[in-house]
Amino acid sequence: MSAFTYSLAVFILVTAVATALFRDVLSVIIVFGAYSLGMAILYTFLLAPDVAMTEAAIGAGVTTLLLLLTIARTTRPSTDRLVERIHLPAAAVVSVFVGLVCFTIVPEMYEVGSTETAVWQNLEVTQHYITETYHETHVENAVTAVLAAYRGFDTFGEAVVVFGAGIATLLVLKREVFA
């Protein structure tokens, strides 16, 4: 693993812990946006550009914007005693634990592009999806077939979550659903 990978992992961990520990809502939203951008960079580094673009657009972009719009419509508590509200011993214990877990797991991960992963070891499954997807689903694009047919319930669940988030946003922003 490179120094970039370790520094990215540390950045993601620090922003995740800060998001959980900060009490000022605006600070949490800003740090959460940085966390989402860090995750998008990690997904890009792990050669998952579709997931990276989704994380950047939804996690860092739309979610941050909706949270900022929501906080603009509500009141913020005073931040005069922000440092006193964070329980430093608990934060230190959690940070050390998460750090140990990550530094134990990250070196065990496969290197990017490694042919020793399960996908490369079982090419029969990969070839099955490439050759038989059209015959089983009658959808020409293999990626669309997997998302629509094989992962249909998962995709439906994601659509329900996005719909629910949209309705909740409209309610929070006090917009009329039916014009």
| Helical proportion, percent range | over 70%
Structural class call reads: mainly alpha
What distance lies between the first and last C-alpha atoms, to the nearest angstrom? 54 Å
- Tell me, what's the shape? flat
| Fraction in beta strands | under 5%
How does this model look, in words?
With 179 residues, the chain is mainly α. The chain is 75% helix and 0% strand. The chain contains 9 helices and no strands. Helix 1 runs antiparallel to helix 5. It is flat. The termini are far apart. The mean pLDDT is 76.
Output the keywords.
flat
Topology (elements, then pairings):
Layout: H1 3-21, H2 25-45, H3 49-72, H4 82-85, H5 88-105, H6 118-121, H7 123-137, H8 142-150, H9 152-172
Helix pairs in contact: 1-2, 1-5, 2-3, 7-8, 8-9
